[in-house]
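assembly run, all chains below
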Amino acid sequence: MKLRGDNALFRRSELLGLLAFATLILVMLPAALDIFRLNLVGKYLTYAFVTIGLVVCWGYAGILSLGQGIFFGLGGYCMAMFLKLEASSVENTKIQSTPGIPDFMDWNQLTALPWFWKPFENLGVTLAAVVLVPTLFAFIIGAAMFKRRVGGVYFAIITQAVALILTILIVGQQGYTGGINGITDLRTLKGWDIRSDGAKLTLYYIECGLLLAAIVATQLVTRSKLGRILVAMRDKEDRVRFSGYSVSSFKIFAFCFAAALAALGGAMFTLQVGFMSPSFVGIVPSIEMVIYTAVGGRSSILGSVCGALLVNFAKTRLSESFPELWLFGLGALFVVVVLSFPEGLAGVYRSSAPRLARSFVAKLRALWRTPMTRSLDHELAE
Amino acid sequence: MSTHQDFLLSVEALSVSFDGFKAVDDVSLYVEPNEIRVIIGPNGAGKTTVLDLICGKTRATSGSIRFRDKELTRMSENGIVEAGVGRKFQNPSIYDDLTVFENLEISYPRGRSVLGALLFRRDRAVRERIEEIAETIYLADQLAERAEYLSHGQKQWLEIGMLLIQDPELLMLDEPVAGMSVSERRNTAELLNKIIVGRSVLVIEHDMKFVEDIAHRVTVLHQGKVLSEGSMEHVKTDPKVVEVYLGH
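ok done. output:
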């Protein structure tokens, strides 16, 4: 029966796409780029974690979150706190009035490490916190909103507000958070210098592994019945509710899942770029992340990853040459994509790929046939 | 006077007001097991609101709705579904982006929690049950088709099928034959006669021929109140009903 194949995790075309992508990031890019450029690609890929989450949250469940920077930032900050504590050993900070605490705390007349910094002295706790803190925060926001049936535009605006509040909080509490500069001057991870070229390459591969795992995990979610329920919910929320599902639980799940992935991206960002600051938490980065997803295709996992890569690549190129024009360009790109290509690049690919492939094959055939038939004609003539 | 236990559904002194407007006003209604009850009444009589109240879509201002031994007015919508109440909406309410098979699968009463949905496997039992239901609702050949490409009548059947797969004890149908062609209407009547076996059904319908065919008892609502109740014969000859329907 034709429905049987539906149980497979990947369709054949998806599997080919994933293999092509894995080859690109694992083999081709490391071979073609120097370590500086590869590190840039690694930075772009941290946003791919966010866009994959947005595919589930926005593309599938229809929940537009304009606050993914919150979770990206929280994940990044958790990682940065550990690295900062390691960089602030008594030996490294002996010129401070209170040695052994991060430099920005000393500048702000703090004399002891605040209680919420203490757990981040432990790497295991930190790694757990990287995922758990943002996910728990998403759970609280999600439960508060979705249980009260707040959705759509209102939810989007509230996520914006939370992103703004968090930014203001981080900037305002300079002594505890590093303020507007963020947490900088990160050096080592358990004595391993993360600024060296070798470390950068290793971190890049770790990130690729995590990203591929995230793609497979997301595919598992979207291909399960849960994925179909999310789509059904986007279409007809009431019907799902009256089919016996707690709609709010499913929305909370989608939102938390997206938050956990964003947090993972944030932690990888800190490790590869070497600092974390409020400029990755607020409204603008959060909206940019949604734009990456829209450009790539909000219902395609790989499409959204490509969106993150391409837009970031363009951003680096264009904002170097025309810094004042970039934001306008980005806004225009978003409007054009949403109006003309609601399914993004993935949608364009899906609708035109079969036709392109067919014409390509036809051309190949024609090329191949011409000499063959000619020689055949020749033989026949003889 | 009977006790609660004799009835599958006991609606007592149910009222709801929207900004002072009493859409449903002190309605009492008792449905026995295996009974087919039809609610009729002019537009704005509060028929759909009564169904909304029973399935939890609208919250009652006062009164009680007991289903078996459960008080539905305090339960969540999904809790009410799990208790055994199924609801079909007036306009076909199906998932356009999913196939007929997936539409039915989502309604299959297993894996309704987040974890359950993640771990749900499309096994033989599920497949067979869906095929069986599809056969019943005349959509066996459309299983792989996207639901948005179905005709209006087929969409209505699909929604009935989605309820059927839940196997509810109380089935509530809001105008199941509205907007259907003559042949679709005939098929739907046949379908309803097939699926009402072994459960109580609460139907809202305007088509009197259809009502006469299926109703055990009829409740007439008018301006949020019960105007008359009894067999179709009784209701048809009730002077109050005649007045409301025919005017002075």
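The longest helix of chain A spans residues 344-381.

Chain A is about 75% helix and 0% strand.

not gonna interpret more than that til we talk
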